[in-house]
């Protein structure tokens, strides 16, 4: 009863604010700072504004949200949690475990979230049977983005398997262009690793090794092959790759300076923001060898426990984020796909339609795995342990065989 009243009050608040054009502000902590991300964020800001909710921006750049999570910890420790926070997978569960997140059950029940949010997402949006966040999208990380004109100029078409991919990289390199645009940051190295691991070991092995952390699988021949493939890729990045932001790597493909980028589908947001069209200007395909599988992550808005008007605004924001119309409008721009199964693909471009098809197929075949790089395979301690080994190996500190041993040991220590 009481909760129903809160929802009603929240909606009434939205309407009253809209009517008077007074704005109550939600403070939102997020890491959507690139051009494409900002465009998507604007869809959300405008949607909230139309409901009378103003926006207090708290951007902290850095894919995977590591820096954002550091800022968040400081804010919560100071007793000053933001209203809503962009969060990934195990980080959400971690905060829920600490009792820091608000309970969205009444809104979820009223709007039927249980029926439309896929189980793989509910696993991170619910804790002890309580909805504690609102999923805004599903990204998948095992994608390659390619400049079509560059490929045409060297006579390369979409590679269908790993060997064809390596041959294509080689041809581009021989032409004097950069074959693989990459930014040497731990989370980006790890993002490449998601797709390469799926390609080298397949989804069943990925689940055993990366998600379940079975030491035999972690230290198996598939892991060796994964690191060997990472080494091959390392041979195709330019010498200035170190520290480069992911969106600058995307820009290199967009501008025709480079042929390929391996990156989650937020990269598509950059291509679209630059006015490019899938199919004619750029290609999107799965990391060769990983077709049929997807490594996913879902951006969710976790709501911290607050009281009074801020709590009412949280309900309005969560409801706005979960609306099917919004999920379409937002994800069309963001590069991701909706976090609900009942949103039509009508407004999505060819890459988006393909993404939705492939996600649904992978979900029903059991080949949808949580992205290690983006916090959907393990809690932060294990993720960071993996990051360290992957990055050290990519930078030549270990050979592939040593990296296999190191990842087994690092995970053992971290878990
Ligand atoms: C998030 C995306 C974001 C990307 C790069 C990922 O962790 O899920 O929404 O676009 O990082 O910032």
From TrEMBL:
Keyword Transport included in the entry's annotation:
yes
Which of UniProt's keywords are assigned here?
Answer: Signal, Transport
Which N-terminal residues, if any, form the signal peptide?
1-24
* One term under GO cellular component: periplasmic space
- InterPro entries recorded: Bact_solute-bd_prot1, SBP
- Subcellular localization(s) per the UniProt record: Periplasm
Q: Cite the Pfam families for this sequence.
A: SBP_bac_1
Q: Which domain of life is it from?
A: Bacteria
The entry sums up its family as follows:
Belongs to the bacterial solute-binding protein 1 family.
What is its biological role?
Part of a binding-protein-dependent transport system for a sugar.
Protein name in UniProt = Probable sugar-binding periplasmic protein
């Amino acid at each position: 009863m009481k909760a129903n009243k809160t929802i009603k009050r929240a909606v009434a608040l939205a309407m009253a604010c809209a009517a008077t054009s007074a704005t109550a502000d939600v403070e939102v902590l997020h890491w959507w700072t690139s051009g494409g991300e900002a465009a998507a964020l604007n869809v959300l800001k405008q949607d909230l504004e139309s409901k009378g909710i103003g926006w207090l921006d708290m951007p902290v750049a850095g894919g995977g949200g590591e820096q954002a999570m550091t800022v968040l910890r400081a804010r919560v420790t100071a007793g000053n949690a933001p209203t809503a926070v962009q969060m990934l997978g195990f980080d959400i569960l971690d905060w829920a475990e600490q009792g820091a997140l608000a309970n969205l059950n009444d809104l979820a029940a009223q709007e039927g979230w249980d029926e439309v949010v896929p189980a793989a997402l509910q696993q991170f949006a619910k804790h002890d049977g309580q909805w504690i966040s609102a999923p805004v999208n599903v990204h998948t990380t095992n994608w390659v983005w390619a400049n079509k004109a560059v490929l045409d100029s060297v006579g390369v078409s979409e590679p269908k398997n790993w060997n064809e991919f390596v041959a294509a990289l080689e041809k581009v390199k021989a032409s004097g262009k950069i074959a693989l645009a990459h930014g040497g940051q731990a989370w980006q190295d790890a993002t490449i690793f998601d797709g390469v691991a799926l390609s080298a070991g397949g989804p069943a092995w990925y689940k055993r090794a990366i998600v379940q952390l079975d030491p035999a699988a972690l230290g198996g021949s598939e892991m060796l092959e994964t690191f060997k493939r990472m080494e091959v890729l390392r041979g195709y990045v330019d010498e200035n790759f170190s520290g480069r932001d992911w969106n600058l790597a995307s820009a290199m493909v967009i501008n025709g300076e480079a042929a390929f980028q391996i990156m989650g589908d937020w990269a598509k947001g950059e291509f679209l923001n630059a006015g490019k069209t899938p199919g004619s200007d750029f290609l999107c395909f799965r990391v060769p060898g990983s077709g049929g599988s997807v490594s996913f992550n879902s951006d969710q808005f976790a709501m911290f426990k607050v009281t009074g008007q801020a709590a009412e605004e949280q309900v309005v924001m969560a409801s706005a984020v979960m609306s099917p119309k919004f999920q379409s409008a937002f994800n069309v721009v963001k590069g991701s796909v909706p976090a609900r199964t009942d949103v039509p693909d009508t407004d999505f471009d060819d890459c988006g339609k393909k993404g939705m098809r492939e996600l649904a197929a992978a979900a029903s075949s059991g080949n949808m795995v949580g992205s290690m790089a983006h916090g959907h395979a393990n809690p932060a301690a294990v993720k960071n342990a993996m990051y360290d080994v992957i990055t050290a190996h990519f930078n030549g500190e270990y050979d592939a065989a040593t990296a296999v041993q190191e990842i087994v040991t690092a995970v053992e220590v971290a878990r």
